[in-house]
Fold each of these.
Amino acid sequence: MSVNQQTHTGPPYGQPQPGYQGFQQPAYGGQSLPGAPQSQYGAYNGPVPGYQQPVPPQGYFPSLGFPSKGSPVSLNSDTSLAPNFIGSLRAPPTSGAPPPASGASHPSGHVAYSQFEHGDVQNGIPASAAPMQRPPASQPFLPGSAPTPVSQISTFQQYGPPPGSVQQLRNHMAGMTIGSTAASAPPPAGLGYASVPPVSGSVSATGSGLYTPYSASQGPPLPSVSQALPVAQPPFPGQTIPTQRLPAQVPGFTPPPPSTGVGPSSYPPTTGAPRPPAMPGPPLPGQTVAGPPSSQPNHVSSPPPPSAMAGLHPGPPMSGLHGPPPPTHPPQPGYQMQQNGSFGQMRGPQPNYGGAYPGAPNYGSPPGPPPPPKRLDPDSIPSPIQVIEDDRNNRGSEPFVTGVRGQVPPLVTTNFLVKDQGNASPRYIRCTSYNIPCTSDMAKQSQVPLAAVIKPLATLPPEETLPYLVDHGESGPVRCNRCKAYMCPFMQFIEGGRRFQCCFCSCVTEVPPHYFQHLDHTGKRVDFYDRPELSLGSYEFLATVDYCKNNKFPSPPAFIFMIDVSYNAVKSGLVRLICEELKSLLDYLPREGNMEESAIRVGFVTYNKVLHFYNVKSSLAQPQMMVVSDVADMFVPLLDGFLVNVNESRTVIASLLDQIPEMFADTRETETVFAPVIQAGLEALKAAECAGKLFIFHTSLPIAEAPGKLKNRDDRKLINTDKEKTLFQPQTSFYNNLAKDCVAQGCCVDLFLFPNQYLDVATLGVVPYQTGGSIYKYAYFQLETDQYRFLNDLRRDVQKEVGFDAVMRVRTSTGIRATDFFGAFYMSNTTDVEMAGLDCDKTITVEFKHDDKLSEDSGALLQCALLYTSCAGQRRLRIHNLSLNCCTQLADLYRNCETDTLINYLAKYAYRGVLSSPVKTVRDALINQCAQILACYRKNCASPSSAGQLILPECMKLLPVYLNCVLKSDVLQPGPEVTTDDRAYIRHLVTSMDVAETNVFFYPRLLPLTKADVDSDSLPAAIRNSEERLSKGDIYLLENGLNIFVWVGVNVQQSLIQNLFGVSSFSQISNALSTLPVLENPFSKKVRSIVDMLQGQRSRYMKLIIVKQEDKLEMLFKHFLVEDKSLSGGASYVDFLCHMHKEIRQLLS
Ligand SMILES: [Zn+2]
């Protein structure tokens, strides 16, 4: 066997690994290149017979914790370093004025930088703040950390139809128990959801010793649920026919059907083993367990007369409505709350849905008081809180193992671990559906978009295994001859292992001699478990020179800091703040593996109407400035000494950063240029022949005479007109062309904006957007209140994992193909997504369409290949594979959907739509598409029932509430306080968001702080986003990924106010606070730890806003209570649900 015998010209790789055949040498062959990175990657070289002498895994490199920034740094620059060294190209004279007192001090109550640890990006309850750790993008493949054949054999399931009844097994929804399935003639493919125990916790797969059988203790037991559940509703004694505001009235909302008999065990084929039938599980959404249901039914019934639909009729019994039904509408089938369309008519007493606080555990408690009549009971409509809670309870306890095709992962709001056994982790890829229609006609009929939200460089929690780096030497990765797909677990080896058939295009390719391996009796290569690319869903290949630009291995990337030094930037203290910060931050540039220092070089530019370049060569005693005032034709006035190694030029850089604030302290220049700044950075990278990132700190609309000069074209009068789209479009194509040049060079732009007025984010954002960069915006930046947020964002942005010069391609198996892409990137053709830079927070959403028929047997495959340059200049390929099921029954599609991902896709689709269509058109299209999705389900999957019923698929029961949030968002329906720049900014942000981010952005998390248990690490149970859920006596926290609001009710106990704010009364609470005071009492500590925890979960530092009830800021807060009617005209959840129902009925009639 000749593996790993090739010589290489790359940098040294990996450590000597005893026992690893062919891997005795420290370098992976050949000579090391100057500046080549040392890495911790143990190369994964070639087939090994087995793991000999396992070495403990060495996954994460030591924390690169950012230094504590707790103590103020003196901002007084050393006057001995006065700018006179600068020579002829002198900057404006320095004033020597002392820095603003607040310049470097930190507000009390701030949290340490360590909160940016990323292990917890996955929602759920995060670990407490810890020193920042930045795991490497990939990790060595070491025997000890590899999946062991033993465990894999026992758990890895062959793809294919699950054993047992396919239909039964295919049912995949944790959480719904519908017992009447059989009786009500469910549609094929198992609409009857058995009362399934948590998917992850309940699989006692045959042959697998890894799973702990579900135990009833993992959730509230549901004994005799079926018996206990009422089957029909009580009459509606007091109901009257609504005469006004019909939409707000209730159509019949009935409780979910009881689960009788837990029909066939409906397990997803995912775990590969049939589940025990009729296992009692936790209460399911909508189920009543000896008391009011703890969650919302997903079937909302409304009275039949369509004419009255816009307003809900009185009529049928509905949950929450009490009283006898109007004579004209006696209770009848079709008015019950249904689940999944899987049961028919139910009558009988219905539990009260009354007063109990939704989401509160109500198990066993007596029904609450009846709600007021004439109003649709919000507690009876599907609750996001309950769905999130149920998924957490059901799926948070066991790891999500990716060995089986088409498994729907736990929700993004559930904290779970992932074990890669052949498919990419949901942290890398999430799909709108994991079971896709076999034909294009079916797909069209359902209108469910088929899309994948891909985050190729996602950060993993420390407990999870990073992708292994595989080195095939000079021959590079093994690929299909025809479609060029990379070797992956789904390739079929044939002819004794001499050839393999491509799982994407079916082409047969010779196995290269060095890659040959024998097959075992099952046809599997005997080195299957030794090779990540054969057994794992995600891994990396070291790229050969063929994958490099100009057939040359890349140089390490560079970071260029470009600071606006115009009047506003200087006066606000921003320039001084940035310079002070950079002095320490530069020691924390991204490093690869165990490298001692970062390979990234740095450069500095300041600018207003002209640009100042700095020579910070290590041999200089002092930095030198060179001014370029001809901004029309930008060039870089110096090559040698502009981009330097931080350690080598440490003193010169420090000196420069001390002097910049002084040099411009007295500036009177208010005008700025912008495009020439980007051009300068681009030219510098070109000259250095490397990729890199520009960090631009900018304050104003660039009105100075220069290319890319802009004018103020903001015009709110355009809102709601056909010209509204122009507000989102760039005002000149100049930046599009510039972006294209940047992408070609691998020049990524991150933009930090500090506007005091309109600065045209839509135009300034073009280059960051198309280069894969980020935009941060701090409107009306004030040092005291905003510096901490800005500095945290900057630190994280500088340190985060990023790949450069990236190209991503998504290959698919025959029958579907990627047709559309959303995200921050550039495309020069129809298949390749190009990003000058791609960081660990960015996602690319890919939509698929059919181009042929798919088969249930073979399913569908995706392979996402990302070619990029690491922060040390290493060229790599990261591969993510995902296999999906295919179905001939629409019910299977609806059962395997993920609404959070669907919303992520729909929001991006709509946010792109506003560039070309009137906003109203976009909104209507969204509503229409969702109505079609739900109508198709109703028509084809739900059991026959009255047309008056609103029946929602279990997996999509939150689609209406979430869709309404998208429709009401600032981009699609701006309130008066939302600026044009805000809208462009949000549009940009959302486009790159992952599913967890869109989830909390559109439906914020609302936590009752006063209910928090100060003795536990847990968060208080979230509540629904509606004003009626707020109590005047409590304090709440609301977060959406960008802001954290702390809302204080007028009747909050004085002691709580004292403990949290350190003042003695409600009226004394200052809403100017940007942090909570640090007070030594349990409540203060608890609340601050919650805030820190939330900050640690988000990719941006959230702005903290204190809101007092009945204060003017409360309007802003209420904007985020998304279940309520909004001031800008957005519908309440209840109203919108009724509207959707009407739309669906129209489609069905
Ligand atoms: Zn192929």
Amino acid sequence: MTRATRATLNLRALQHNLTIARRHAPDSKLMAIIKANGYGHGMIEVAQALNDADAFGVACLDEAIALREAGIPQPIVLLEGFVRADELRLIDGFQLQPVIHHPAQIDMLEASSGPALTVWLKVDTGMHRLGVTPEQVPAILTRLLSCPRVGAVRLMTHLANADDRDDDYTLEQIRRFESLDELSVAARSIANSAGLLGWAQSASDWARPGIMLYGVSPFNNSIGEQHDLRPVMTLRAQLIAINTHKAGEPIGYGGSWRCPEPMPVGVVAIGYGDGYPRHVPSGTPVLLNNKRVPIVGRVSMDMLCLDLRDCPKAAIGDEVILWGEGLPVEAIAEAAGTIGYELLCKVTSRVGFEYTHE
Ligand SMILES: Cc1ncc(COP(=O)(O)O)c(C=O)c1O
């Protein structure tokens, strides 16, 4: 790897964040959510580092199979279940646990033969994405429990607004889920990261932390550090040029920013071709020699520019941190009008990944 643009992934921080999740739900089992390539961190490396997790949650069969082929032994839950009957053969073969969110899946289970699976029945308590209604649950549960293809049924739901700690909708969802408390199921699960950190009553038998494991706050008004989380990914690049421009000269495509005075402008070798968001405004910070320095002009595919007026010692070759240690991804996400989840998932394959244990 010759290009200095790289992501360092601190697996010790990842493990630390799992212990924080445990601290919030000491009596719960933890299903670590590692879909979308471990939220962009490298799914296999993340799974290997999180060997204390009680299970893993992924979005699709391909992700689950990749984990099994890498020798990951823990239970693996398919959060979207399956769509076609022939997927059941793979679910059996790789010993996976599908989420059942639609009666059509039960039809397929009933029509198939094979071992008895542990399944997670998803209840729609208000997310209105996947799941059966609380009213449908008793009949569906009876059907599942009498199906020879079903060994154990666990009940789960997903919180829609838990990232807003002032929004009572979460309490309403929990209440709807608790209305099913009388039913006899093997286990229950409600909490994502926001549930774990902000809504203690959602811990239940199993919690399903995702974003917090990567050191990022799930809330819209805090950063990971405030929850004792440590960033796992630090995105780094290098200053490859420093040029002095005259007052009034425009910087980059479209000339959206002009130098207010004669000034040094740094050029950093990273852009949207690496996953850095193109639409952050001028003023969005990077970290240069431990100091926050503003981006000026538009981010281009391979480069972005910095206002170096307050950095007289900046030199070509200096390292620039785009997010991670010392600069929370939450701040960059806010500037980009998105969430940390998206930025982490979108780092492209051109960026070299280095795993550390610091
Ligand atoms: C069903 C389910 N559970 C848990 C999670 C983890 O959520 P978070 O990353 O907010 O902790 C997700 C992520 O989208 C999910 O879809």
